[in-house]
Structure formats: C-alpha cells, structure tokens
Amino acid sequence: MSDTLTGKKIGKYVIKEKLGSGGMAEVYKGYQENLDRFVAIKLMHAFLVADQDFLNRFQREARAMASLNHPNIVGVYDFDVYGDNSYYLVMEYIRGGTLKERLESLARQGERLPLKDVVKMIAEIADALAYAHRRDMVHRDIKPANIMLNEDTGRAVLTDFGIVKLMGNQSMAFTATGALIGTPAYMSPEQALGKSGDNRVDIYSLGVMLFQMVTGSLPYDADTPLAVVMQHVNSPTPEPSSLIPDIPWGLQEVIMKAMAKSPEERYSSAGEMAAALRAVDLTATSSRPVAPVVPPTPNIDYPTPAKTEVMMPATETAVAPPPPPPPPPTKHPHHPPPPPTPKKIFFFSPRPRGRPPKKTAARRFGGAGGAREANKPQPPPP
Fold first, then answer.
1. What pLDDT, in 10s, does the model give residues 29-80?
2. Which class in CATH covers the domain with range 7-93?
C-alpha cells in the first residue's frame, strides 16, 4: 500500500497520514469519527493476505492482542477486512516517537538517557511483560523500535505483538513458516538455536535493551546477523562496567542476570526483574561495596576517665529483684589462746662465808629417794 490512502476511509476510520512500514504491514494514523479519537491502523501487505494460513494466524493474533488491557501495552480496538483481500488492525494511537528514535537522536549528540529515566522505562516494560506472561503470551521481539514513548502520559508503551506466541499451544506460530522469530541484536540464545522458549526469552531481550540504554552500545557486534546470533549463543556476556566504569553495581547485576545464557539463571519472571530494577541504588559505584578496613589501635596510654554515675531510665517492664546475698559463713566463738604457763624461778640465798653447808640425809643421798636410803640400817664399818 502507499500513502495514496490519505483522506480515504477504511471502515469507520478516516486515514490522516502514513506513519511507517514494516515487514508485515503499513501503519497509518486514522481518525474514528463516532468516538472522536485518533487511532493507529496496521494494514497487512497484500502478499501475506493471499496466504490463508497467514489470515488464520492474523485473526488469532488480533484476538490475543485485544485481550490485553494494561497501561504499558498498546490497546487493540478492532480488526476487519478492507476491500477484497486487505486485513487491518486498529490500535491505540500513541502521540510520541519510538525509543529507537530517541536513542538514535541522543547518540548523534554523544549523549545517553539519564539512568533514572532508563530504570523507569525498563521497569514499566517489565510490568507490561509480566502482565502478558501471566496470560500465557510472549512478545518474542522486544527491541527499542517496539517501544513507544507517550508524550501525554510520560509512559513507555510496548507495541507490536505481531509475532506473539501462545505458550499453551506450541504449534501456533505467528510468523511465516520457517521464519526466524525475533531481531538478531536482541535475540536470546534459545531463540537463536531454534528452541521453544518461554517468558524468559523476553527477559533476555529486555536485558539486552537495558545494556544498550545504559552503555550506548549493543553487547554484541558483527558483520552479519548470523554472526551476531552466534555471539548471543557462544560469547561471554560483556560487563557494562567495561564500557561505563561508574555504572551503579546494582544496575550491572540486573543486566548480567537478565542476560544469562541459561534461562534458569535469569529472573524467573519479568515482575521479579522490575522489582530488582526499582531497588537499585543509582548512587553506588560499579564495585560491590566492602566493609572498611579498621586500622589497628595504637598502643597509647590514655588517662583513666573519671567515674561517671549513669542513671538508667525507668521502664514499664517489671524487673526482678536481685538475688539475696549468700548467707555469711558460720562464726565460731573466738577463744583467745591461754596465756603461757609462767616458768618457776628459784632464788637461792648465798651461804655465809666460812660456814659449810648443812648435810642432810636427803642431800647426801640425792633427794627424797636418798632419804629412804638413809633410813635403812647401815652395815658396820670394816
């Protein structure tokens, strides 16, 4: 289709201008007269409509998109047939450009988005994905071109569920048979290997987009799309701090976890990733904080501080009385030791000079025993 449709009417909608073109459809700005509102109209390419299988997939896609009602997901109002073989999809019109256009404009000026704006946008898209994932819907093509920046509300809005896959039925594919689902620069390793992925393919792509918004560069670059895809599969995940040394370490952790090669090592849900993003301290550095090293205390003699009486505040809690003091030891009456027995001291009067001592029987025979001997009869002298 061309912009020759401008001014014409498709169903209830008047075409105002052409907004763009993609692989599946051309997009127009339309006006719905009965509700007095602007809408976005996606008109499918004629060569796709010729395929009956594609028409069936398109109708499933339209119904799936119309079932979503979230402030960060573009609303789908209607779908119908235009003419003989042209199908169109009517969506909410978002006044504002895409995130891709915003990033390209900043890159030309050598600038990047403020980190607080980055966290806000990615967290909002994660909220939208969490809502869709709970309804068994996977976007599978998360990239800046599919993010609209609403100038009226300031919100980031996820659009283009054109390649959405219903996880409940693995046989449903919303792209042409054999086509590679996703964009190589943002593709998860399991998508690149042709495996059936779950909601964590969107988490990986969101992590790649976060890497790009923070550093100003994509994590992988090569000459061909296939080479880029294989880097997602085989090359180590680069750390954002290698490009932005002062990146907050918490933000780097979110990126590295979201971009883990193994789905089991990523966030289990987009809601978990959104919560982790909002908890990041944007003032922290890229290095994980460590406890400060306390220097050894110098050997200094300090004066003994004066005793201070501290009065503890009274509390309402009853305090148990202190235990009674232990009983004093049994006291035994003290008896002073008896005084020492005085020694008997004998005083002898000196004998008068010239007077021989008086001999007695006791003295002669040595005391009382000698007196007994003296009383015995004595033998006659020879």
1. 999 999 999 999 999 888 877 777 777 877 887 888 899 999 999 999 999 8
2. alpha beta
Q: Which of 127, 141, 160, 202 is catalytic?
A: 141
Distance between first and last Cα of the chain:
187
b/e sequence 104-136, b meaning 16+ C-beta within 10 Å? eeeeeeeebbebeebbbbbbbbbbbbbbbbeee
Q: How many CB atoms lie within 10 A of CB 257?
A: 17
Angle (CA) 102 26 74, round 5°:
55
Give 145's DSSP letter: G
The CATH superfamily assigned to 94-283 is: Transferase(Phosphotransferase) domain 1 (1.10.510.10)
Evaluate the CA torsion angle 122, 127, 128, 129 in order and state its sign. positive
Q: What's the Rg (C-alpha) of the chain?
A: 53
Residue 198: CB atoms within 10 Å? 14
Q: Please write the tens of the pLDDT for every residue from 195-252.
A: 878 999 999 999 999 999 999 999 999 999 999 999 999 999 999 999 999 999 999 9
Decide if 141 is catalytic: yes
